[in-house]
């Protein structure tokens, strides 16, 4: 039996623990030598680097639909601090720092959040959809990812079977952040817009992107680990300039637990496989 954390034995200490973690989190950033992107400008930079459209409402989540609409609200609140934010050469973008106090005037609502391996409604839940989308944009640019954390559990099925696995980015203020550094000599900009039940995110630049990028899974494997079903996905990226040849690069291996029922054809293979 695993030993319980102090905050699990004494829940009243949890707010103090969160305050402590946030204090250390931002204090460390003040002295880490990075210059963090903070400026939002009215103008949109002229060139589109990469664009992604993401549905905000998942009607197959298995949970009360109100949490989906609350998530959409939370995404719009956070977007107030992210839309038209620029990342200058030499600057670092921090998701947590960028959206810090976004709810000062308009409070977040309870959205679905994964905590302690369980899905529940919590204040500000659902913001990981924003960090997921931004990470996907950054992967299609010359920005350098310096911090990214995958979810320990993939809680909901993908919107499409062709969706690349292992390219999510969880954030938790005080614990996990998404960061990229602009090591180029060009300015980048995040823009966000909303229409109906979708969110459109775009990474723009002051000049055209030199490289074209593709992110893909050379392999995806499902397996058992004790009573859990896991997914191991290799994530690769390739790039090319103009009509030149592709340059291949292995990025990382992503391993997470699957928190939803897989199709029978996949489950049958897992049942016949070894338990790691």
UniProtKB/TrEMBL annotation:
Question: What is the protein name stated in its UniProt record?
Answer: Glycopeptide resistance accessory protein VanW
One Pfam family this sequence matches: VanW
Q: Which NCBIfam families match?
A: vanW-gen
